[in-house]
Design a protein that fits this description.
Strand order of the largest sheet: 3-1-2-4-6-5
Number of helices: 14
Helix content: 25-40%
Strand content: 15-25%
Shape: globular
Largest sheet: 6 strands, mixed
CATH class of the largest domain: Alpha Beta
CATH architecture of the largest domain: 3-Layer(aba) Sandwich
Number of domains: 3
Number of strands: 17
Structural class: alpha/beta
Distance between the termini: 44 Å
Length: 452
Amino acid sequence: MFYYKYKDKLIISKKKYEEYASNIPEEHNIKSEINTNLLTSSSFEDFHEISQDEGEEYDGTIYALNLLNPKYSRRSFVVSHKEHLFIEEETLDLLKKPQKIEEEKSLNGANPAIPQWVADAIEEKRIISLNIGYENWKDVIEYKEPEKWKINVVGLGDVGGTLLTGLKLLGCEKVSQLGLYDRDENKTNRWKLELGQILSPNMVERDINIVRLKEGDIFNCDLFVFCVSVGVPEVGKEVQDVRLIQFKGNSKIISSYAKMARECGFKGIFAVISDPVDLLCKVAFEESNKDQSGIVDFKGLAPEQIRGYGLGVMNARACYYAMENKQTENYPLEGRAFGPHGEGLIIANSIENYREDLSKELTQKTKTANLEVRGTGFKPYIAPALSSGSLALLSTINSQWHYSANFIGGTFMGCKNRFLKGCTEVETLEFPLQLFEELQHTYKLLDELYNS
């Protein structure tokens, strides 16, 4: 392994940086996807090689260089296991907890021996995998998390307004400002008044600032929240999967905002609340990474900047229905939710004591919960806005575990994860074989739905 210092940060690599330009891997036709001129020695002119002993003395965040096709790989992620330190391909296997292997061997024998202090840093969540296939990969090293977050919300309908209410009530410790934007100025004015008049008598000095935004100010924030939605069926006109009906209309709208984020050089989180979150995340990633002529150059939003918030309410609904049956009441502690907010959803009754019959029953109840609410004569937006929206967003900025869709191997897949140091750490589990096969089916389904 090789060790470098860059702006007082420690960089580790399994080979010398000079070798990357001359030894580009062929996986996924990477040579046609990246600008190889970025990998010349001038790209690393500020790198200074140091000894392993000097590296061992460093106690900050460590960045592990890797070169993968940006079309199918994140720019960065928190390394959870030593087997993930220098991966050669990003797949759904990143959700699996690696089997115990010999201390000095990697999963496929491809990694060099890992010193104990590096293994310790992985356990301490101090190592970030850094994909130099992205032109702006140095942005990861220079990232600084805000002490208090400026959050801008676009789309002030039922979901957006409810989400903002949750953030106003619960976010005073971490949120400094809530920015409001809707093309209907009456909605913006309404929520400026309403939110400004929600105030605890004990929080005057720590209150969140509420501001109306002009379109040009939308990306002047740390967290952008997309709540615009078209094509939501009226009550009484229910369909089995509402979110897919919304995809066509919402994808056109989110494309324009993704391009705007690129133009603004947006460095924060691009959060998608509108349905279908996983597919819209992919639209945002692809559209933001095209230049004006439509050529993909990967100069837009990085995959880890884009997060889809729809799975939180599915987990909450699963918890609700799990309490109806003694056989599933262990779900809140042992179970997990995976996949999209709709068709393809997987609710596992338990990871350690997985039962397919109980899981399928719980999944079906969770998937159709929105229809049950519609049966009362109302649109099902309150629980989604709070469980998938406000609460999950606050968990994100507090680096707490939560459910959201994240980029894995070119597809945005919902799972439990947390946001650390500007990157994502996904929860890894010891999956029963049958359950992981279900996950792979959903993963493939999401790709097919996007390309259909």
